[in-house]
Amino acid sequence: MTENITIQRLSSERIMHFIELIRVFEDVFEMKNFVIPDEDYLQQLLKNVDFHAFVALQDYQVIGGLTAYTLPAYYSKSPLIYIYDLAVKTEFQRRGVGKMLIQSINDYCKSIGVKEVFVQADMDDIDAIDFYRSTGGKAENVVHFTYLLN
Questions:
Q1: pLDDT above 70: percentage of residues in the chain
Q2: pLDDT tops 70 at residue 136
Q3: How far apart are CA 150 and CA 58, in angstroms?
């Protein structure tokens, strides 16, 4: 199922892979009228030590990936990692690629001393909820509030 698929954590030298990943997000999340930020901005984001981007590659093409942020904690010296987006191209879904991505970020986080990784999913997105449960995630009943500024 996942033959010839590798997972890589992106460095700032992999800007084109990052752009490909953003295009995967745009397609999978059906983002209408999306305008991608310029390469300089994206390169600076990749250089930020608190930003993490992982891609799934098959034959050097991005077929999926995830982005995450480090959140410093005040109740522990160990930070938290928040997975912001995770997507796999439609034709590669249900083949274990998403699980490989979750395992990769979890392994990376363990290696740098992070004790907790979390992600949120819309309650209506049953596929996402089932996916995160299948990867060992434990669901919590919370309500997410957004303040749209401008």
A1: 99
A2: yes
A3: 40
Q: Are 55 and 6 in contact (CB under 8 A)?
A: no
Distance CA 44, CA 84 (A): 18
For 81-103, the pLDDT digits (tens) are 999 999 999 999 999 999 999 99
Q: Sketch out the chain's domains with CATH numbers.
A: 5-134 (3.40.630.30)
Block residue for tokens 């994206």:
42
Q: What is the rounded distance in angstroms from the CA atom of residue 42 to the CA atom of residue 45?
A: 5
Q: Which long-range contacts (CB under 8 A, 24 or more apart) does 26-34 make?
A: 27/89, 27/90, 28/87, 28/88, 28/89, 28/90, 29/85, 29/87
